[in-house]
Amino acid sequence: MKRNSWWYKSTWCKKHVEAMQLNGKSKRTRQVYSRSLRMLVEFFGKEPDQITEEELQKYFLHRKTKDNWAPNTLRIAFCGIKFFYEHVIQRDWHILGILKPQKEQRLPDILSRDEIQRVFSKLTTFHNYAYLATVYSCGLRLQEGLSLEVSDIDSDRMMIHVHRGKGAKDRYVPLPHETLSLLRKHWSHHRHPRLIFPAMKTNGKEAANTENAMAKAGVQGAFRSAKNAAGIRKKRVTIHTLRHSYATHLLEAGVNLRVIQRYLGHSRLETTMIYLHLTKKGHEDAYQRIDGIMKGFDHDNQ
């Protein structure tokens, strides 16, 4: 039995997961929220319905001041635990309303188009290349790319229908002609009736009759190996970096921020605006204007 597997078979965990499913939480969100509640239960050594409001307050103080959890870690733990106490056992606790863990504001790393080409050139298998090139050229999240189906490709309108995205929100994204050609070539290798990126057999070939998509760990490992082989030394570079790079490159090409927001599936424009901090577009012109303004000052007379 896997470590901590007892919790995932417990009644409270099942109720927590069911409530999150009804609420439309993604699989990844359900996993991290469930883990947050498990850690709380293990901390006190008793069932979650036996934990008091005062104990919950002490728990978060301990995680923040003693364990020095990062703001994002605290925020995820709080959200998962709050969801349980509000929606599963319906506790109307004051502490749930006042806890506001600070959200870490860190700019993501991005890759230039040259760096992306270098990484892609180091990929050793065509199926990983096809997958990662699609993720980048369409601004997809990791799971969105793996979940692509044949019916999602609208070649007449040159669009991809993303309807298994974060928050269960549908959206359409532009499909570049080169990406369509790449997907057709990749599909011709396996001809799966439904999946664009079906799981692999042990012999390295796609399984035409599988029900599963390519493994997340597999594409992550392939990207990591290619990144290292390409000599990329930026620290926080993952497959999701391709999505950040896509948005930044669109902005640098002059695409309107509202349009980028729609392609990325962001609910709030403020989320998309982070890419304004990642692009150099407009900086050169701004520097020239600043220089022009400052030419009127005579520093020799000061």
Give a written overview of the molecule.
This protein is mostly helical and 302 residues long. 53% of the residues lie in helices and 3% in strands. It has 15 helices and three strands. The chain has helices at 5-8, 11-22, 27-44, 53-65, 71-87, 95-98, 113-121, 126-138, 142-146, 177-190, 216-229, 239-252, 257-264, 269-272, 283-294; strands spanning 153-154, 159-162, 171-174. The chain has a three-stranded antiparallel sheet. β1 (153-154) and β2 form a beta hairpin. α7 (113-121) crosses α11 and α8 (126-138) packs antiparallel against α10. The model has no long low-confidence stretch (mean pLDDT 85).
Q: What can be said about the biggest beta sheet?
A: 3 strands, antiparallel
Mean pLDDT: 85
Strand % is under 5%
What best-fitting shape do the alpha-carbon axes yield?
globular
Q: How many whole angstroms does the radius of gyration measure?
A: 24 Å
Helicity range = 40-55%
N-to-C SSE string, H for helix and E for strand? HHHHHHHHHEEEHHHHHH
Question: Regions with pLDDT < 50 over 5+ consecutive residues?
Answer: none
Tally of DSSP β-strands: 3
Alpha-beta classification? mainly alpha
Strand order of the largest sheet: 1-2-3
Head-to-tail CA distance between termini: 77 Å
User: How many helices does DSSP assign?
Assistant: 15
